[in-house]
Design brief:
single chain; 81 residues; mainly alpha; 4 helices; 67% helix
């Protein structure tokens, strides 16, 4: 996406441009890069529970991002303003 194209667009238009571009999968990869790589098994039961919840939260966030990008591609943001 060129800077000239993005400058004249509002936020909704920019979201649509990103979701429909070849860069959308890269956004997901960036999210994966931010996911901690801690093992679920830890020294204590409490640490194991915290690690499992943390990983579940990151997984949910990535799944929601993928679903949101798909919804944008399907036209969810194409509403009258």
């Amino acid at each position: 996406m060129s800077e000239e194209i993005l400058q004249g667009q509002n936020l909704k238009q920019k979201k649509i441009a990103l979701a429909t571009s070849e860069y959308a999968p890269i956004v997901i990869e960036l999210l994966k890069d931010c996911t901690p790589q801690n093992p679920i098994v830890a020294k204590t039961e409490w640490e194991t529970i915290v690690n499992a919840i943390t990983l579940e939260t990151y997984g949910t966030m990535m799944r929601q991002m993928v679903d949101h990008l798909e919804a944008i591609r399907a036209g969810v943001l194409h509403t009258k303003e």
